[in-house]
Amino acid sequence: MVNITRQSSHGSTGLFVPPSPPLDPEKVKELQRFITLSKRLLVMTGAGISTESGIPDYRSEKVGLYVRTDQRPIQHGDFIRSAPIRQRYWARNFVGWPQFSSHQPNSAHWALSNWERLGKLHWVLCLGCGEQTPRGVLQERFEVLNPTWSAEAHGLAPDGDVFLTEEQVQSFQVPSCARCGGPLKPDVIFFGDTVNPDKVDFVHKRVKEADSLLVVGSSLQVYSGYRFILTAREKKLPIAILNIGPTRSDDLACLKLDSRCGELLPLIDPY
């Protein structure tokens, strides 16, 4: 049995949500008008849509990881090159996974799901040998390899992991691929990595098919998302942004709203 003590923010769903002004009824009407006029609406979501579920992000004003700590996300090149860095990542992820995987969708997620079910959305986009292992199965392999390992977490991070000291990480055992014996990497795009060109082309096509674009919970600071705003701008699509705090594309949007995603989206009639 692995003995794990961790700081818990479960139940404190507002802990990682930046402060925002009260809802402006006129802004709600403007977003309602934007959605009503949209017939092929494309929605792009960022990490900010999940902060109301209790999952932190990086850039939120006053509460994001970059503001709260000097910790920085792992870089793709470092993960690939360094076994100790992979060990550190998986130790932190192992401790954080039970809490991270227990978080539930919030009202913003449910609102967009309802829009999709009703046919309002054109698309919703969430930004070795190829063997894939379910994360729950990998958690069991970690437990088998580390029966006496224990750690106390020091804060929650945005990527399903927690903060640990180097001393805590050193004795943690990391399993290899059960098929080829190679190192394991989560099936995500790390900072410093590149998105598959086929996926980029897919999103560009969805943008060109859409008649409007709504950004939810993203500062658009990373070019991998910002480039689709530029494509929408070239196509002269109306762009609305729902995000607490400034974004990289505020000057390209016809509507900018600084409200909680889960507070505003459920008020909008998709028709």
Overview of this structure, please?
There is one protein chain. The protein is of the alpha/beta class. It is built from ten helices and seven strands. It has a five-stranded parallel sheet with strand order 3-2-5-6-7, sandwiched between helices. The protein has a two-stranded parallel sheet with strand order 1-4. β5, α9 and β6 form a beta-alpha-beta unit. α8 (197-209) packs parallel to α9 (223-234). The longest helix is centred in the middle third of the chain and has 18 residues, at 83-100. It starts with a strand and ends in a 7-residue tail after the last helix. The model is unreliable at 1-11 (pLDDT under 50).
Q: What is the fold's blueprint, element by element?
A:
Blueprint: E1 3-5, H1 25-37, E2 41-45, H2 65-68, H3 76-81, H4 83-100, H5 107-117, E3 121-126, H6 135-145, E4 150-152, H7 166-169, H8 197-209, E5 212-216, H9 223-234, E6 239-242, E7 255-257, H10 261-264
Parallel strand pairs: 1-4, 2-3, 2-5, 5-6, 6-7
